[in-house]
Amino acid sequence: MSLINLKDEVQKILAVEWKGFSERHPRLAEVIDQSLLAEQAALSIADDPDYQRALREAEGMEWSANIAVELVGGFVKDWLKKLF
Fold first, then answer.
1. Quick check: pTM over 0.85?
2. Distance between CA atoms of 23 and 60, rounded to whole angstroms?
3. Which of 79, 80, 69 is nearest to 22 (CA)?
4. pLDDT per position in the chain (84 positions), as tens?
5. How many domains does one find in the chain?
6. Range of 24's domain?
7. What gap in Å lies between CA 10 and CA 12, rounded to an integer?
8. How far lies 77's CA from each of 60, 61, 66, 81, in Å?
9. Residue of 37, 28, 29 whose CA lies nearest to 7
10. Is residue 1 part of a domain?
């Protein structure tokens, strides 16, 4: 999606979600590299067929960057739920 940088948005969302994660999983939070986690999340989300379909729909509908960020946010939160 040309409106946003997926990895940057994933990092921002992870930063917001990190506090809750670290409270629920303090030992894991100590050993997980957040930048590596963001990179892996971005790669995984970029390969997700549902994400790719949503991008195609977004481009066809000329969604704003704000809507694109919300879309990415949902995928990041879903990805995190699957991971932990």
1. no
2. 40
3. 80
4. 445 788 898 999 899 888 988 998 899 999 999 999 999 999 999 899 988 888 787 777 767 777 778 888 888 888 888 876
5. 1
6. 6-83
7. 5
8. 25, 24, 17, 6
9. 37
10. no
